[in-house]
């Protein structure tokens, strides 16, 4: 039994409550390979304190997780990341970041459930680690955009070459972003929203 008084019961912080003007909410997933910046993007753009499930990498992952090119990485997402951003007074996006390692992919199906769209983050140093994410989204019919995350010393390729390497149709937006930067991450999400709107245009009702 809870004997605490009403003054002692702690509720959500004021900044975490949903804006009263919000009239539509959309679930979006941030996907990609191991270490491409999914947790960073959710954390940089979320207007609430993000929920993360990062754990310190241990010897258990040696020989299992491919850390080539990201040897300095010390933590990894083991379930999901969660955040929220209001794009305007009416539209709210709920953001779910997926774990990148193959051994946690069994969680993806649940995270994809109900998602209207996705952002696929890629690292040009390790382009291949995000191929499976694209394939899974295509299999489930989830619309997506692809964002090239800015990493120091990462090779820069023309967008046409990247599109060809990933076998992306022209209809899928391919953009640059910096997951560390709130404005850049927000612009990436706006690109996804515009893409979703182009796929499902709203037509005025006939009086």
UniProtKB/TrEMBL annotation:
<keyword id="KW-0342">GTP-binding</keyword>
<keyword id="KW-0378">Hydrolase</keyword>
<dbReference type="InterPro" id="IPR004130">
    <property type="entry name" value="Gpn"/>
</dbReference>
<keyword id="KW-0547">Nucleotide-binding</keyword>
<dbReference type="InterPro" id="IPR052705">
    <property type="entry name" value="Gliding_Motility_GTPase"/>
</dbReference>
<protein>
    <submittedName>
        <fullName>Uncharacterized protein</fullName>
    </submittedName>
</protein>
<dbReference type="Pfam" id="PF03029">
    <property type="entry name" value="ATP_bind_1"/>
</dbReference>
<comment type="similarity">
    <text>Belongs to the GPN-loop GTPase family.</text>
</comment>
<dbReference type="GO" id="GO:0016787">
    <property type="term" value="F:hydrolase activity"/>
</dbReference>
<dbReference type="GO" id="GO:0005525">
    <property type="term" value="F:GTP binding"/>
</dbReference>
<dbReference type="InterPro" id="IPR027417">
    <property type="entry name" value="P-loop_NTPase"/>
</dbReference>
